[in-house]
Amino acid sequence: MIHAMSTTPHRAPTVGGRSAAEVNEEIRALWLRTGGTLSGEQRQEYQRLVLEWAAAYERASNTPVTQPPADSRKAA
Predict the structure, then answer these.
(1) How far, in Å, CA of 2 to CA of 65, rounded?
(2) Closest CA to 29 of 19, 17, 42
(3) Residue 61: which region, alpha, beta or left (left: phi > 0; alpha: psi -120 to 50)?
């Protein structure tokens, strides 16, 4: 299931928020929707999502994140 994108690009990750898998799904949707080329606004949204993904991953695993999710490491 693909979730709608937030209209608030600078929203900070929430404690107890979405799972890393949910955020990763939104990252995938962003890449699919843009064809792999991000505008400035989309790049800000991507950066926010990666930070949210990292926070969710760390919450779930108690492991610091050293790199973004595998599918989000595409060159923009």
Answers:
(1) 24
(2) 42
(3) alpha
